[in-house]
Design brief:
heterodimer, A: 431 residues, mainly alpha, two-stranded antiparallel ribbon, 6% strand, globular, B: 1015 residues, mainly beta, 22-stranded antiparallel beta barrel, 12 helices
């Protein structure tokens, strides 16, 4: 056998080799040699299959639940229910209300983190809008499942996302438009989203699921109507809520996005500590079971928060583990909406009924509007402690004075009230 | 599973050992003593020591030989009675010498060269390219010589002072960490500025900062280039910019580092052995961490030096002295047919805290097969196994030292200097860190197969196939019951497995033709295919039932991840054509064009073309050149070319990612918005300069001007979340430039019989500037930039610092100010000198994180059997945002100024929460990097040890900081002006261009004694 590198034929064979190699490589270049795998990534066009409908609907729930968890952790710090007690600069800024429009954690890049709700809530909103559109374009036959319950649930979560974006943020932008919306405009949109959700819920077959979603939508619409100053409408919706109704956002330890951030961030990792004024709440001298507080060592946590200085106090009756669910809407909320709107004896009756349920002394004070309003706000503060962003919303709705001066470590409080629209959004919108 | 893993590891080692044993049985001395051969020794005319790796050729023939570690060579296949030998080696003058064929004891002395026009450089084409023909300046590091004179334990140490314009931005003094390599400034806004690396022609992992979870607590992580053993490297060549690296195409805009490992030489087997031992320590830590301040219960300001306080209380220093030890052996030899180089090296290194150590094992097997004069096949294999325990598994201990007694917490029960907390931040004393275990286990294999074929005298072609494969298994473990302030009192174990795979297929051919009597044409072409694949899988377990359980599955809470952001694949397919015309071997004109397609280009963008032109003229070879004793040699050169850089594959495509819903339901969530219009960032560069030898060849001068301009700059813009997609989006905006001068001098001012002095020095300048941003508003650097005020603004360098500039404030009482005034002017400008209230005052330019000049000076003094080698490095013109200092003044309030509260400017910074501005400092420094003294043991004594040569080298690295542009800000001391984060995405900054440091370990001083034997 002749050697391929036989010297006498070397130039010719070399040329053949070159030609062969070039042909091989160039040929390969033309036949998908640059194709790459995208492990763990799903190209958008794969979502166009109707068979994915249940997964997509569940995705809306998942994204909203994650965003809601972040919203609660963030607003709990901003509303001063917890002291900021972190040695981490970013967390400390949340605790001292120094969230500027160019702050990373206000415009954070994913829902894996726990402070900052803008991006997660925008994702939740987008998912709801986008997937509702997909679900409405498909038929039950195409999806091989009944789509009405999926559409209704997706619409309800979307409406809640708009509500929280309207309540908590100073300004808003949607879908990269060249428009910056006021909170009032966002809340108007939220109400219309609830209207649409209600129609979709009513299209469902009767049953437990329908009842649950009806209650969820009624509480949500009542909340946003109250935000918009439509007390009568709010009270009307609230009156339709079934007694004992509660709706929770689920949490678990399956993934970082599933954690109860209010527990992990504020208590377990000690970035916050229950503010002193909430550590021994009573009603008529009796401990208030709605805000049960314990020192860190009493529940197996360190005595000091993450800053190493602040005494660590945690709340034990809610958000007490990584998998604790977080209440989104309830009959209690509906009733307190009614109390706020109807005032006077109705309000006192609602509040005392609740106190009876909690075995607390009855309210016997003044019943003028101002007193009732103060009473309702105090009840809301206790009832929704670390819950739903309700107290934060109250501070904003009623322009209640924010904490000023220095925190427990001498760090001055900043000027953040509502959460700012991130700088990049404002600039991109031409604002 | 464990069995299988161990088995694979041993298979790798076993393969190398098998080949080593095989090679020992191959003929090694076939040519020796033959009548048609010449053998002898090549020595250094200065030191009279043997010179290895010198290339010996016989004029008029194709016969080649290379000297071994003893300087020996044998050149076979000769005819006639005499032959003219040509001896060439990097760093030496090329000489010719006539000898009789059959001579067996030829002695050749070669002198060190000041100008190296005849050395060959690796430019991407097949066949050799001589420096004289290349229109660019090439950084050339003679590693084998450098390692003998100034031994380094990591490659980056050797690079930082030898190539003008190349900067190693060190991450920290933590053992196992590396740094960022930049050549001629920062060439990208958001992508890496890291040059690509080839090892023997095969693309290698050039990750500057690994994502090892074992180093999770700090911003400093390992750099993959330091996996290599410097002792296995023969030389490193650096192509500095696009005009030199055009043939490498997409990805080469940051330059190319070519690493050439040692190869076999013909002759009898030569063994060499090396043993090392020494000490690593932090000099005077009590002065580096000089203490903090707080007010006691009586409101009196107290100073606390924790290190002294600990020592006084019997706890000793939190720092310790590490003891590096190591050794290695190499075997080199071969015949006319096959040549081999085998080496094995082991190192145990210890850092400045007892829990920071590194064990590393390297093995290299390089085999060369020759089939006559036509074919050479190189099979290069290497294996590295290292195990490192980091010092920054959790937030570094320095954190708790620097920011002790925050906000007067030393008055709190248990936290005072005499309490259990001893004043450390949050009461976390140094002892607590020893039980937090961060480990990094690296297994890295490289294989390369290169065919060099010369089928005809006019044609060279080359095929290189190879891969670089790294498995990085890291872990982080907090035992149950570890200090609660670390955040995991129930315990936590994180495990992470990162794999990288770089595959190279490179074919090139060069045809040479004599067009006319004095005009030679060299036509080249080639195709290349590169793939890069990264994958990561990780898991975590928390809340262990009892102390001692340390597995993920032992945790009560368990999670697993395969994050799509770290599972990437990128492919490049490219081709090039080049034509070079050489007139009378002194004037060279080169033109080339390179085309690339890449998997990361957007669907709307398919192919990119990079052109190149260069010229080189050895004007001193012309008859009209006025040779004089002052100017001996002069080469003029100039080049213009382009190269590019692209992001990773997913950047162009809109994707969703899998997520988890209620009850474990599988769900999807928006992940990456993509950019279908994405195209590569393209940098063009103009380079011009000259090389000259002066004063009777005793002085060399190398001067270069460069001007790089990047267009379509890729920026990682924060994607508007209102789109529904989180994260960032790669977009092409902006134009920016780097330009500067590089000047290198080397000479031998003293050359007496027994005393020789060589001096060398270099200085390189860089002016980095964003010329066009592409949008009106400056873009903050993501992550850390937003934390500290680093912005990309038109007219300023990349990632410059912008803050409100406080000029005055009225102190009303200690710690309280009013009337805080700032300098006015336009936002993102240098200010106009006016004074305005700080509320609403503009952000003004403070400085750039990029050095505007780099310099290195070195000297070798040879006296009899002693050689003293030293080098110092300088960097300047840039700023660092020192988070340690800023935190002391503003956030933790434990600096003297912060506690006293009498400096109105400091109090004003506190009032405004101006953390970044309180820590910004000039970062210029000068350090004596290395001082080494080598003693060559007399031959008789070496012989008594059974060796032909024995040398002892004593080395001190990081001997002293001899200059700092600024060491204090408002009285607080910055520990090390040099260190910066290199961890990817630390605080979310992918660019590594930031000038921020915080908590990092300062660099330690190292003493190393090395004994080498050659047998």
């Amino acid at each position: 056998m002749r050697n391929i590198f036989d010297r006498s034929n070397a130039p010719m064979r070399a040329s053949l080799l070159i030609g062969f190699a070039l042909t091989l490589l160039l040929g390969a270049g033309c036949s998908g040699v640059l194709n790459v795998e995208l492990p763990g990534r799903i190209p958008t066009d794969l979502l166009g299959d109707p068979i994915t409908a249940p997964t997509l609907a569940a995705s809306v729930t998942a994204d909203f639940e994650c965003a809601f968890s972040n919203y609660i952790a963030s607003t709990t710090l901003l509303s001063d229910q917890f002291l900021g007690a972190s040695g981490n600069l970013s967390a400390k800024n949340w605790g001292t209300r120094k969230i500027n429009e160019d702050d990373t954690s206000n415009e954070q890049t994913s829902c894996v983190g726990s402070l900052g709700a803008y991006t997660p809530m925008q994702t939740a909103r987008f998912q709801a809008d986008d997937i509702l559109g997909r679900l409405q374009a498909w038929t039950d036959a195409q999806a091989t499942v009944p789509l009405a319950p999926l559409r209704a649930r997706v619409a309800a979560y979307g409406a809640y996302a708009y509500t929280l974006l309207g309540e908590g943020f100073c300004a808003m932008r949607f879908n990269k438009e060249k428009v910056i919306h006021t909170p009032a405009e966002v809340l108007a949109t939220a109400e219309s989203k609830f209207d649409a959700a209600l129609a979709l819920v009513n299209a469902m077959s009767a049953g437990t699921a329908k009842t649950e979603l009806l209650n969820l939508v009624y509480v949500g619409r009542a909340r946003v109507r109250l935000d918009r100053g439509n007390g009568a409408g709010a009270a009307a919706d609230a009156a339709l809520v079934t007694q004992g109704f509660e709706f929770f956002v689920t949490r678990s330890v399956d993934a970082d996005t599933r954690l109860n951030d209010a527990w992990t961030t504020l208590s377990e990792f000690g970035h916050g500590s229950v503010a002193p004024q909430y550590r021994a709440l009573t009603v008529g001298g009796q401990p208030d079971p709605r805000v049960e507080v314990a020192a860190g060592p009493d529940v197996g946590l360190p005595p000091k928060a993450f800053d190493g200085v602040t005494d660590l106090y945690v709340i034990t009756n809610k958000n007490f583990s990584r998998g604790d669910p977080m209440r989104l809407a309830s009959y209690v909320e509906a009733q307190l909406i009614r109390a706020e709107v109807l005032k006077a004896a109705t309000a006192v009756g609602i509040i005392n009924a609740r106190r009876t349920e909690l075995q607390l002394p009855q309210y016997t004070g003044a019943t003028d509007d101002a007193s009732i309003m103060a009473l309702v706000l105090d009840e809301r503060n206790r009832e929704f402690f670390m819950e739903g962003g309700q107290h934060y919303n109250d501070l904003l709705r009623f322009h209640i004075a924010w904490k000023v001066g220095n925190d427990q470590n001498g760090v001055p409080y900043g000027h953040t009230t509502c959460m700012p629209l991130p700088q990049d959004e404002r600039i991109a919108a031409g604002g | 599973m464990r069995r299988a893993k161990v088995s694979r590891r041993w298979q790798n080692i076993g393969s190398i050992l098998f080949l080593a044993m095989l090679a020992l049985f191959l003929p090694g001395t076939r040519a020796r003593g033959q009548a048609n051969a010449v053998s002898g020794v090549v020595t250094d005319s200065l030191t009279h020591r043997p010179v290895s790796d010198a290339l010996i050729s016989a004029a008029g023939t194709a016969q080649l030989a290379r000297t071994n570690l003893r300087g020996e060579f044998t050149l076979a296949g000769l005819t006639g009675t005499t032959v003219t030998l040509i001896v060439a080696r990097i760093g030496y003058q090329r000489i010719t010498q006539s000898v009789a064929v059959g001579a067996t004891n030829v002695s050749i002395e070669i002198g060190r060269s000041v100008l190296r026009l005849n050395e060959t450089v690796v430019t991407g084409q097949a066949g050799d390219t001589q420096v004289r023909a290349f229109g660019n300046v090439v950084g050339n590091v003679d590693m084998s010589s450098t390692q003998l004179a100034m031994p380094s334990k990591i490659v980056q140490e050797a690079l930082s002072t030898t190539v003008p314009g190349l900067q190693i931005q060190r991450a920290s003094g933590q053992l196992g960490t590396g740094g960022v390599t930049r050549i001629r400034g920062i060439s990208s806004l958001s992508l890496s500025s890291e040059p690509i690396i080839f090892i023997d022609g095969v693309r290698a992992d050039n990750t500057a900062g690994s994502g090892s979870v074992g180093f999770q607590g700090g911003g400093d992580t390992p750099s993959r280039i330091n996996d290599l053993d410097p002792n296995d490297i023969e030389s490193i060549q650096v192509l500095k910019g696009p005009s030199a690296a055009t043939l490498y195409g997409t990805e080469a805009s940051n330059g190319v580092i070519q690493i050439i490992t040692k190869k076999g030489v013909a002759g009898r087997p030569t063994w060499s052995a090396e043993m090392r031992g020494g000490a690593n320590w932090l000099p005077s830590p009590e002065k580096l961490y000089e203490g903090i301040y707080y007010r006691d219960a009586n409101n009196v300001v107290q100073h606390l030096n924790l290190i002294k306080n600990d020592e006084a209380r019997g706890f000793g220093s939190p720092f310790s002295t590490g003891h590096p030890v190591g050794g290695g052996m190499a075997l080199q030899g071969g015949s006319d047919v096959i040549r081999y180089f085998f080496s094995g090296n082991y190192d145990r290194d210890e850092g400045i805290v007892s829990y920071n150590w590194l064990n590393k094992l390297n093995g290299t097997s390089n085999l060369s097969y020759f089939s006559g004069e036509k074919l050479k096949v190189d099979l290069n294999m290497a294996y590295t196994r290292s195990r490192t325990r980091s010092a920054s598994a959790t937030q570094p201990m320095t954190t708790y030292l620097i920011w002790a007694c925050p906000n007067n917490s030393c008055t709190a029960p248990g936290l005072g200097p005499n309490d259990p907390g001893r004043g450390y931040l949050a009461g976390v004393t140094p002892e607590a860190f020893k039980e937090i275990e961060g480990l990094d286990n690296v297994d890295r294999s490289r294989i390369g197969l290169t065919f060099n074929h010369r089928p005809a005298h006019w044609l060279d072609h080359r095929l290189t196939l190879g891969g670089d494969f790294t498995n990085d298994a890291s872990s982080l473990y907090f035992p149950r019951g570890s200090n609660a302030n670390f955040g995991f009192p129930g315990g936590e174990k994180l495990v992470q497995n990162d794999q990288s795979s770089f595959i190279t297929a490179d074919y090139s051919a060069t045809a040479t033709a004599n067009l006319f009597a004095n005009l030679v044409s060299q036509s080249s072409g080639g195709v290349q295919y590169y793939t890069k694949k990264l994958s990561q899988i990780s898991g975590s377990g928390q809340n262990f039932p009892i102390r001692g359980v340390n597995t993920v599955s032992g945790g009560g809470l368990r999670q697993g991840f395969e994050d799509p952001n770290f599972n990437l694949e990128n492919k490049t397919f490219g081709t090039y054509l080049q034509e070079q015309l050489a007139w009378r071997d002194r004037l060279y004109l080169t033109g080339a064009v390179r085309g690339d397609d890449n998997s990361a280009f957007g669907a709307n963008y398919n192919f990119v073309v990079y052109p190149k032109f260069s010229a080189s003229w050895v004007v001193s070879d012309e008859s009209f050149f006025p040779h004089s004793s002052f100017l001996s040699t002069l080469k003029l050169r100039g080049a213009w070319g382009k190269a590019g850089q692209q992001p990773n594959a997913f950047a162009a495509i809109q994707t969703y990612g899998p997520s988890v819903g209620a009850g474990g339901t599988p769900t999807v969530t928006p992940l990456s918005i993509g950019n279908p219009n994405l195209r590569p960032e393209v940098t063009r560069e103009l380079e011009a300069g000259f090389d000259a030898s002066l004063v009777k060849n005793r002085l060399s001068l190398e001067f270069t001007y460069y001007n790089k301009h990047t267009q379509d700059g890729i920026f990682t813009a924060i994607n508007s979340p209102s789109s529904g997609f989180p994260g960032n989006q790669f977009i092409n905006i902006g134009q920016f430039s780097n330009r500067g001068l590089e000047l290198a001098l080397a000479g031998s001012p003293v050359t007496r019989n027994d005393l020789h002095v060589n001096l060398r020095g270099s200085i390189a300048t860089n002016r980095n500037r964003i010329d066009v941003l592409g949008q009106d508003t400056p873009i903050p650097n993501t992550g850390v930039g937003q934390l500290t005020g680093a912005y990309n603004a038109a007219g300023f360098p990349v990632g410059s610092f912008f803050y409100q500039k406080i000029v005055s404030a009225t102190l009303t009482s200690p710690g309280n100010v009013t009337n805080i005034m700032c300098e006015g002017g336009a936002n993102f400008s240098k200010g106009d000198g006016s004074v305005v209230p700080c509320a609403g005052a503009p952000l003004l330019y403070f400085g750039s994180p990029v050095p505007t000049w780099l310099s290195a000076v070195g000297a070798d003094v040879v006296w009899r059997r002693f050689t003293l080698a030293t080098v110092a490095e300088f960097q300047g013109g840039h700023y660092v945002d020192d988070g340690n200092v800023g935190g002391e003044h503003v956030f933790f309030n434990d600096s003297k100024a912060a506690v006293e509260g009498t400096d109105p400017i400091v109090v004003a910074h506190q009032a405004l929460g101006n953390f970044g501005a309180a820590g910004i400092m000039k970062a210029g420094f000068g350090k004596i990097r290395n001082v080494s003294l080598t003693y060559d043991v007399p031959g008789t004594l070496a012989s008594s040890l059974g060796a032909t040569r024995t040398a002892v080298t004593l080395t001190v690295a990081n001997l002293a900081t001899i200059w700092r542009a600024q060491s204090r800000k408002f009285g607080a001391l910055g520990q090390d002006p040099e260190v910066r984060f290199n961890a990817p995405n630390f605080y979310g900054d992918p660019n590594l261009s930031n000038g921020y440091t915080q908590e990092s370990w300062p660099q330690f001083r190292r003493f190393l004694a090395t004994v080498r034997f050659t047998f």
